[in-house]
Amino acid sequence: MGFEQLAALKAQLAKQAKEARPAKQAKEARPAKPPRARADSAAKPANAGKPVDPVIQAIGKLQKRFPLAFPKNPAPKAPLKVGIFEDLLQHAASLALDEAMLREAVRTWCRGTRYWTCMVEGATRVDLAGEPAGQVTLADAKRAQQQRSQQYRATRAQKAKDQPAADANKSGPAKEEPAKEEAAKPE
């Protein structure tokens, strides 16, 4: 390519750049689109597709209505008054819960390490308003300790059971091959 051809190419490119500049400025002069509002995604809960367990919903209602008796995590649970279920039955209609659902919610609430940990001898039991309503007896504290121990042992046993199963799955095909060979041997 000669010097004249390079000069002509340069002039042609400069002309194209000049023509492109007004078009680009016209695009920039237009009002910019406002950013899309993401209110629709913010309004939906993160787990909108997953069904929520009705017992969890019932416990949520109890936590909203009686926050001192049913505190939200991470607050420690408080030992509930003996006979609190009868007190809850009086509020069943306002909570929109039936007797069976209330019974299951209280059963679930009182099961687990977080509740059993609060069950120590002499701890104050609370009613629905969070007022003192008795104390945890030695027998109740021992039962809670037994429940925690049983759950701990069951968890350890399940982990031990799952561990060999996971190890067997990793080496499973290698162990099956000798069994196939033995079946193929003539006697």
Report on this model:
It is a single chain. The protein has a domain at 54-151: Orthogonal Bundle (Fertility Inhibition Protein O, Chain: A, Domain 1). The chain contains 8 helices and 2 strands. It has helices spanning 3-29, 39-43, 54-65, 84-89, 92-95, 99-109, 113-118, 138-184, and strands at 124-126, 132-135. The protein has a two-stranded antiparallel ribbon.
What labels would you give this structure?
mainly alpha; 187 residues; 2 strands; two-stranded antiparallel sheet; Fertility Inhibition Protein O, Chain: A, Domain 1; 63% helix; disordered C terminus; 8 helices
- The assigned CATH architecture of the domain at 54-151 is Orthogonal Bundle
In the CATH scheme, the class of the domain at 54-151 would be Mainly Alpha
> CATH H level of the domain at 54-151: which superfamily?
ProQ/FinO domain
**Sheet with the most strands, sense and barrel status:** 2 strands, antiparallel
Task: Give the proportion of residues in helices.
Answer: 55-70%
Distance between the termini: 88 Å
Report the CATH topology name of the domain at 54-151: Fertility Inhibition Protein O, Chain: A, Domain 1
How many H/I helices? 8
Mean pLDDT: 81
pLDDT below 50 for ≥5 consecutive residues: which ranges?
174-187
